Amino acid sequence: MQVFKFGGASLKDAENIKNVADIIDKYKSDIGFVVISALGKTTNALEMVINLYVNKNDFYIGAVKTLIESHLDICKDLFKNEDFTNVEQKLNSFQDAILDFLGTNTNNTYTFIYDQIVPYGELLSSTIVGEYLTSKSIKNEWIDARTIICTDSNYTEAKVDFEASIPKIKALLKTNEIKVTQGFIAKNNDGYTTTLGREGSDYTAAVISYCIDASKMVIWKDVPAVLNADPRIFKDTITLPKLSYREAIEMTYYGAQVIHPKTIKPLQNKQIPLHVKSFIDKDSIGTIIGGNDEENYISYPPIIVYKTNQVLVSISVKDFSFIAEENLSTIFKCFSNHGLRMNMTHSGAISFSACIENKMERIKSLVLALSNDFEVKYNESLELLTIRHYTQEKIDELTKNKNILLTHKTRTTIQILMRNEE
Q1: What is the pLDDT of residues 205-218, one digit of tens each?
Q2: What is the pLDDT of residues 86-116, one digit of tens each?
Q3: Domain end point (choices 188, 222, 256)
Q4: The last residue of a domain, from among 174, 196, 222
Q5: What's the total number of domains in the chain?
Q6: Whole-angstrom Cα distance, residue 204 to residue 188?
Q7: Cβ distance 60 to 102 under 8 Å?
Q8: What pLDDT does residue 292 have?
Q9: 296 pLDDT above the threshold of 80
Q10: Predicted confidence band at 422 (pLDDT cuts at 50, 70, 90)?
Q11: What backbone phi and psi angles, to 5 degrees, belong to 416?
């Protein structure tokens, strides 16, 4: 039994949704679950709704209605007559639920509000897909992911409770219909919606795969396979037909956008292979990640991860004492408390540096929190280049005309923090 996952790019319009249905129809005898992301830029649109709401701007009402209308416009190309009326009622009920929550909510915590609103993107898209499959006589059962995936209450980054989730997910296997559900969303013990982290639909599919002992998980993307670099940035990219679990998790750790970073662990724990395929070229081979023979000494080309808009935060002790374990513990805890992930670090005798994403409001708050005990400075507008399986030729090529601020090198990976020469 396989678990399929379709991302927002594969659901951006009516033609793509029809293509998704064709893929599901082709493999329907092998599919247990289909995990659906929000359509196109829906998550961004819902984040705008939240920002309007928290800033007490009543334009959020119109923004919600505009979002629902955009989904109904897609439905007009998918459904006719009674089928359209049915899906229209369901989408309008989601609109009512969003506006009702925002009209009555008394909890001002941003992460809580976020997790109650943003998941409607997946609820809308999965409803459209499920209804369209039904209209094409493809038997399916729409499942609200919040009824089967249980988490803690760490809003926007909730941790899955596998022990509580497994029996709920396995119970659905009693019927033969394909289960259509949502990625990214779940529910805590208090009955409130939670989310698993931005772009977390891959992880949802992996959680379900783990819980049902799937034979394979398949992610359908708008690229032919996993590539050694982002084709939007680099020319002459190379297809990677096979990756080990280890290589995949290293790539995602350093920032490769191929899959969500949490996806690999539940699959590796049960040796479930992950197949990345193209929803555009359905017959292309794609990339297989892991499986029982994953460590058969796969040879890799240089694998490149390039991140812009980076900030280097430099932290020094004020009294020339060493940056020892106690100081580092304080620093790391402060970064964690401010939701800032370190993409690269360097420790000296009296200073510590970390490269992070440019989340300036959080950075300013971090600087303020550390300033009592440390001297803190930062540099903006930097680029972080990571090359797995590097060669000197590739390093020279990608650092030409760059001013290098910091380098970290191991046997397999080099990270270079740099900026354009002035």
Answers
A1: 999 999 999 999 99
A2: 999 999 999 999 999 999 999 999 999 999 9
A3: 222
A4: 222
A5: 2
A6: 15
A7: yes
A8: 58
A9: no
A10: low
A11: -130, 120
Q: Provide the 3-class DSSP secondary structure of residue 416.
A: strand
Residue with tokens 């959020």: 60
Digit-coded pLDDT (tens) for 42-78: 999 999 999 999 999 999 999 999 999 999 999 999 9
Q: Domain check: are 218 and 364 in the same one?
A: no
Q: For strand 374-388 and strand 303-317, is the pairing parallel, antiparallel, or unpaired? A: antiparallel
Using alpha carbons, select from 121, 169, 131 the residue that is nearest to residue 149: 169
Q: What is the 3-state secondary structure (H, E, C) of 65-113?
A: HHHHHHHHHHHHCCCCHHHHHHHHHHHHHHHHHHHHHHHHCCCCCHHHH
User: Do 5 and 203 touch, CB atoms closer than 8 A?
Assistant: no
Whether 356 contacts 376, CB under 8 Å: no
Question: Which residue type, as a one-letter code, is found at position 384?
Answer: L
State the CATH number of the domain containing residue 152. 3.40.1160.10
Where in the sequence is the domain holding 323, given as residue range(s)? Answer: 303-420
The per-residue pLDDT for 259 is 84
Q: Within a domain: residue 296? A: no
What is the reported pLDDT for 265?
93
Distance set, CA 45 to CA 42, 94, 115 (Å): 5, 15, 14
Q: What is d(CA 58, CA 415) in angstroms, rounded to the nearest whole number?
A: 46
Give the N- to C-terminal CA distance of the chain in Å, as an integer.
56
pLDDT-derived band at 143 (thresholds 50, 70, 90) equals very high
Dig out the tokens for 266 from the structure.
């539940």
350 and 201 in a single domain? The answer is no
- What is the distance between the alpha carbons of residues 340 and 248, in angstroms, rounded to a whole number? 23
Place of tokens 């309008």: 92
Tell me the pTM: 0.89
pLDDT tens, position by position, 222-238: 888 999 999 889 988 99
Q: Which residue has the tokens 């193209």?
A: 278
CB 378 within 8 A of CB 359: no
Q: Is 356 found in the same domain as 207?
A: no
Structure token pair of residue 271: 């040796």
- Quote the CA–CA distance of 105 and 227 in Å, as a whole number: 44
Per DSSP, which regions of 184-317 are E strands?
185-188, 193-195, 216-221, 242-243, 274-278, 287-289, 303-317
| Cα dihedral sign, 9-12-13-17 | positive
